[in-house]
Structure formats: structure tokens, C-alpha cells
Specification:
Chain lengths: 478, 69
């Protein structure tokens, strides 16, 4: 029998799913506790877009009455970024433009979670239209970082990062086009998986950039993340871009360790401009894995990797502009300044330049695969090169320096999106400012399982996932 | 000029050296065939090897074989 903490929300997803399966605790008890935190913590951190407690409790009652084989997440209350469509339920995408939008389709990712028995109890705030790596939102307000509410959460899955870190939800879906799962995970000190392009269905999820968008989970621990992805992964005939490749065994070899594995350290790009403190923290994380038995190897990267940050930004803005053109022309005043400025900028991208940017994905992926995965099992990088900035100092909107700041925040995340590879963000402790630091593991296409194995090996040695933010410091944010 | 623009200008120097004409995608002999013949010759699989399609195919091809099995 699992020993549960006094508040079930402080259990991990894996622990609570096990306890629910053995009827050690009821879904109603867990869901009520989660709803209390989603309401109170969500209000303090501005992280919740909508919650229907009566509906959540009704879902929980149904789960408690269902059979024992209802699925691996039976009765577990989850909450997700406000961009996954469920028929008849609001999905406003952090925007004014989509205020009141009631979808008629069910997101492929939510469908998988439903089939596994999970409950869907709240919609979480996000950057407007998922277009912003800092997490700022001029429409719905900024989400506050649970470790220090004066600081940004990272984005665009800002509410997902904050509510998982605050232990108000056991896991949350996010979307990652340029870092939007991994960056909020990194800024909020939780685990985030950016999956291989095609690994998780994007059907019924708000699109931003059809060649770059991916859907992935944010959770408190690596095992929780692996559990969620084991439910989410797999082919979806409703999503034309979904890969017909079976999901990997993410849990089976999770505790396999890194002894004998080769972990690569990049000799270019990813460490460029990193602060000395984060550089030291990264080296400390490398040492942990070395002590655990991994062989650490320097690997050269293609020279072109340095341009992938900018190319990802260009592709996203251009594809986003194509989707938003009508609203940009008819509802300009309903957009936040930064979202409008970046999307409008995409309207003027020459078609040739856009196509050339896409062309290079193939060339670069082939070159990167040979140079990196021809020598090592996993590439290890920092997740960010700067300490988590305050909301105020990173509130650049469309002003001078906006492009430079966004580029700096996405320095380590965007190359992975351009390549389409899987990337796992894992907490690596805290800087002197008290804000989280994180590391990133990048793997071969569709090899999320190895990333979880390495991430878990690091987590087991450090257990940063046990750190918990103090709600008493959030009063000033509300 | 933003940092993004500057990086793109640099990048495009190498990008523009890419010769799409050297690839089968622009082969006039192939382009002039009826679509049905092209599909049949390709065994019914992916035919229009545009750059995004080549990218997605490569991504799948690079998946570990034990993952695919």
C-alpha cells in the first residue's frame, strides 16, 4: 500500500494513480483536494482560466463507481493548457479573439487521457495563442512563478508549469513549438517532455505552426512524465502528421540507469552566453551522471545549428500569420501587442525564404543525427542560458529588444524544435536567486524512452523533484 | 535589423546554395507523367517528395529499429 501524504495533492501522479487503482483513496477525495488548490493557488498565481468544481466532482464520482480496469489514470484529476478542445467546453487559447469559443471536436490527446480514465477538471492559463516563450499575456494577465511570484513562468504553457510546480495538479498537457513545454517546466522546476514530431496527436489542439507544433506533458517527476506519455503516445488517424510508430516502453526501463551509456556535451551553441552560475550548475549535473556511470563525450554540432533559433522563429511567425491573417485584419485591437507584432511580421515573410527554411530541416537533421547520434546515445545541454528573469524585466511586449530577449530565452529549446527531435527538461536545482535551473536531454527521433531513463537516473541522484514552493509567499501576487 | 534577421541573412547564404533542381522532385520526365503512373511506380507510397515530406520521412527512418518493431 502506498503511503500517501496528508494532502493527496502532494503525492506524485504515479503514487496517486496507484492509490486510486487499489481503492486506497477515492477519486472524489483526490479531486476535491486538487480543486481547492486549483482555485486558491490558481487565483494567487493567475494560473487557471476556468474550473467547474461541480463537474469535476461528478467526474470523480463516476470514476469511483467504475470498474477496476478503467485505465492507468483512472480517477486522477488533471488540468491542461486552455487549447485542447473538448466539445461544448470553452477553449479560449489565452486570447480575447477566441473568447467564448466552444469547440465541437475532442482533442486527440484528451481522448487518450479520457480512455485511460483521467479526469479533466480545469483549463490553465497560457501565453496568447501559445506564442511566447516568456509566458507573458497582455490579455489574461501574467502567470506568476510559484518559486517567486515576481518572476516569469516561461511559456507558453505558463499555467501548466505553475500549477504542476504548486502541486495543484498531478500533470498537465502543454504544447511545444519553440520551447513551450520545456521552458515553463524549466522556469517552474518541473519535468517537461517535448516529443518527437508526430509522436502525440495534435488533432483538436489549437494550431500555431503546423510543421513545429508538438504536444507533451508537464509533471513533477520523470516517472510521472513517462506514465503520461505512455498514455498519450501513438498513432492517431485523425492527425495527418501523426507517425504510425508504436509508443515506446517508457516505464519498463526507467530505472535502468546510465552505466555504460554515452552522453554527449555540445562543443558549440548551447553553452554560448550562459551565465557562470548556470554553467557551473550544468557542470555539476554532468558530474552527477558521470558518477552514476555514464561516459561523457564532447560532440561537435553542425555549424548551422546556430541559426536554428532564428529559423524556428521565422517558421512559427509565418505559419501563424497564415492562420491568423483574417483576425489580424479584422480584430487587430483584440491582440496583445507582442502577439500581433510577431504574427503581423510573419505576413511579410517571402515565400521563398519560408520554404528555404523548411528545406534545411532535412539537411540539418541528417547531419545532426550523424554527428551526434553516431557517437552518443543522448545529447545533454542546459535548458536556459540565463537565470529566470522577473516578470517586469522580461515584459518587453513589442518594444525594442523584444526579439533579442525571446531569442535568448529560446536559445536552447528552439534548435530541438527545428530538428523535430525529442527533448526532456529536468530540474537541476536552484540558483542563488532561489529560482529553478534545468538541464535538457535530446534524443534520437522517437526515442523518448532513453531520455526518460537518463532523466530518471539524474533525478534519482538529486531528487530536486521533492522541493516544494511555499504558498505563503504568493500573497503579494494575488 | 534584429538579431533574427541578421542570423537569417547569414543562414541564407548557405541555404541558397541548395540546388533543388538536382533532385528528383523537379525531374521533368517524372513531372510529366500521369499521377496514377507515379503512384503505381512508387508502390502506392509517398510520392510527392517535397522538402517537408522528405523531412518527415527522414525523421521516421531515423527512429530506432526496436522502437518501430
Amino acid at each position: 500500500m502506498t503511503k500517501l501524504p496528508s494532502n493527496p495533492c502532494d503525492a506524485s501522479l504515479t503514487e496517486i494513480a496507484t492509490a486510486l487503482a487499489s481503492r486506497q483513496i477515492s477519486s472524489v477525495e483526490v479531486t476535491e483536494a486538487s480543486c481547492v488548490r486549483l482555485q486558491t493557488y490558481g487565483r494567487a498565481l493567475n494560473a487557471v482560466a476556468g474550473i467547474d468544481v461541480d463537474d469535476a466532482c461528478a467526474q470523480a464520482s463516476n470514476a469511483d463507481r467504475s470498474s477496476n480496469d478503467a485505465g492507468v489514470l483512472a480517477g486522477v484529476p488533471l488540468a491542461h493548457k486552455d487549447m485542447f478542445y473538448r466539445p461544448g467546453r470553452l477553449s479560449e487559447c489565452g486570447s480575447k479573439v477566441r473568447a467564448g469559443f466552444l469547440p465541437v471536436t475532442l482533442s486527440g490527446a484528451l481522448k487518450k487521457l479520457d480512455q485511460a480514465g483521467a479526469l479533466d477538471v480545469a483549463r490553465l492559463n497560457m501565453a496568447e495563442f501559445a506564442f511566447g516563450v516568456t509566458g507573458h499575456n497582455e490579455i489574461t494577465g501574467n502567470v506568476h512563478n510559484p518559486w517567486n511570484p515576481d518572476h516569469m513562468t516561461g511559456g507558453s504553457s505558463s499555467g501548466s508549469g505553475a500549477m504542476v510546480a504548486a502541486r495543484a495538479t498531478f500533470g498537465a498537457l502543454g504544447s511545444d513549438t519553440g520551447g513551450s513545454v520545456r521552458l515553463p517546466a524549466a522556469c517552474c522546476g518541473v519535468v517537461g517532455m517535448k516529443v518527437t514530431m508526430g509522436r502525440v496527436s495534435r488533432y483538436g489542439a489549437m494550431p500555431l505552426s503546423h510543421t513545429l507544433d508538438t504536444i507533451g506533458p508537464l509533471t513533477r517527476t520523470v516517472a510521472d512524465n513517462a506514465l503520461m506519455l505512455s498514455v498519450l503516445a501513438g498513432h492517431d488517424p485523425d492527425d495527418a502528421s501523426s507517425a504510425d510508430i508504436p509508443g515506446g516502453d517508457y516505464l519498463g526501463n526507467l530505472e535502468g540507469g546510465v552505466k555504460g551509456m554515452k552522453i554527449g556535451l555540445p562543443t558549440s551553441h548551447f553553452m554560448d552566453g550562459i551565465t557562470s552560475e548556470l554553467g557551473d550548475r550544468f557542470q555539476a549535473a554532468v558530474d552527477v551522471l558521470k558518477s552514476a556511470g555514464a561516459e561523457i563525450v564532447d560532440v561537435d554540432l553542425p555549424d548551422a545549428i546556430q541559426h536554428t533559433n532564428a529559423l524556428t522563429s521565422l517558421i512559427t511567425a509565418t505559419e501563424g500569420a497564415a492562420l491568423h491573417q483574417h483576425w489580424l485584419e479584422t480584430k487587430r485591437e483584440e491582440y496583445g501587442a507582442q502577439t500581433f507584432g510577431r504574427l503581423a511580421g510573419g505576413l511579410s515573410t517571402p515565400a521563398t525564404r519560408y520554404i528555404q527554411a523548411l528545406n534545411l530541416r532535412t539537411e540539418l537533421l541528417a547531419e545532426f543525427n550523424e554527428m551526434v547520434f553516431g557517437h552518443v546515445d543522448v545529447l545533454m545541454t542546459p535548458m536556459m542560458i540565463m537565470d529566470v528573469p522577473t516578470i517586469e524585466e522580461s515584459d518587453v511586449r513589442a518594444g525594442p529588444g523584444a526579439g533579442e530577449l525571446l531569442s535568448k530565452v529560446g536559445h536552447c529549446s528552439r534548435p530541438v524544435n527545428f530538428l523535430g527531435l525529442p527533448g526532456l527538461s529536468v530540474p537541476s536545482g536552484f540558483t542563488k536567486s532561489g529560482l529553478p535551473s534545468s538541464i535538457q536531454f535530446v534524443g534520437r527521433p522517437f526515442d523518448e524512452a532513453t531520455l526518460y531513463r537518463v532523466g530518471r537516473a539524474y533525478e534519482r541522484e538529486t531528487m530536486w523533484c521533492d522541493a516544494q514552493p511555499d504558498p505563503a509567499i504568493w500573497d503579494a501576487a494575488s | 535589423m534584429t538579431a533574427d534577421d541578421d542570423a537569417l541573412a547569414h543562414w541564407l547564404k548557405s541555404v541558397q546554395a541548395t540546388n533543388l533542381g538536382a533532385r528528383d522532385v523537379l525531374n521533368p520526365a517524372r513531372a510529366s507523367q500521369p499521377i496514377g503512373n507515379i503512384v503505381k511506380a512508387a508502390g502506392g507510397g509517398q510520392v510527392f517528395d517535397t522538402e517537408p515530406a522528405r523531412y518527415f520521412k527522414l525523421l521516421r527512418d531515423l527512429a530506432k529499429t526496436d522502437e518501430v518493431a
